[in-house]
């Protein structure tokens, strides 16, 4: 287990209310350090998805697009491309 970078996490009362409104649950101040650690973990995973899986997904989309034409190919590209975030449409 990794120790938290901050032993305490301070939030104003308005920030606590905003957090609770966003999550839809009451958040204990005692749980804030755990949530802070979770944010760091999620940021690390997001970076890994963008740098490792994103390029692999782009290669897969490119290969499927080059493999053929038709509804199944177009549907795969259309449904998968939003996960990459930047994929041009097939010229019509």
Task: Give a nutshell description of this structure.
This protein is mainly α. It has helices at residues 13-23, 32-67, 71-84.
Distance between the amino and carboxyl termini: 53 Å
Characterize the biggest β-sheet: none
Number of domains: 1
Tally of separate helices = 3
What's the β-strand tally? Answer: 0
Which band does the percent of strand residues land in?
Answer: under 5%
What is the structural class? mainly alpha
Using only CA atoms, what is the Rg? 21 Å
- Spans with pLDDT under 50 lasting ≥5 residues? none
Descriptive overview:
The protein has helices spanning 13-23, 32-67, 71-84. α2 (32-67) runs antiparallel to α3. The protein is mainly α and 92 residues long. The protein has three helices and no strands. The chain is 66% helix and 0% strand. The mean pLDDT is 81. The chain has one domain.
Notable traits:
92 residues; mainly alpha; 3 helices; single chain
Q: What's the SSE blueprint?
A:
Blueprint: H1 13-23, H2 32-67, H3 71-84
């Amino acid at each position: 287990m990794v120790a938290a970078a901050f032993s305490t996490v301070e939030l104003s009362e308005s920030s606590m209310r905003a957090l609770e409104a966003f999550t839809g649950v009451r958040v204990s101040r005692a749980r804030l350090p755990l949530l802070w650690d979770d944010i760091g973990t999620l940021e690390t995973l997001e970076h890994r998805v963008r740098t490792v899986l994103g390029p692999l997904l782009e290669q897969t989309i490119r290969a499927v697009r080059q493999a053929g034409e038709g509804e199944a190919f177009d549907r795969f590209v259309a449904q998968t491309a939003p996960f990459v975030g930047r994929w041009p449409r097939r010229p019509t």
